[in-house]
Design goal:
The protein is of the alpha+beta class. It has 1 helix and 3 strands. The chain starts with a strand and ends in a 9-residue tail after the last strand.
Length: 64
């Protein structure tokens, strides 16, 4: 899955943040069963935080 941004309404933008401050506000790590579940969680977080959320796949555990 490429880096994408998800808005509070679930809209997926096909790129992450091109410019902006360093990631120093925090992050969340989830192990979810599908990309759709990931987008749903990101939309929920975007709604709660009032800002788009960037999604990145950083590790896939083949045993999970």
């Amino acid at each position: 899955m490429p880096v994408v941004r998800v808005s509070a309404n679930g809209t997926v933008v096909g790129s992450g943040y091109h410019t902006g401050p360093a990631l120093d506000d925090g992050f969340a790590v989830f192990e979810l069963p599908s990309c759709d579940a990931t987008v749903n969680w990101a939309a929920w977080l975007a709604s709660a935080c009032c800002c788009d959320q960037e999604l990145r796949v950083f590790h896939i555990d083949p045993a999970s």
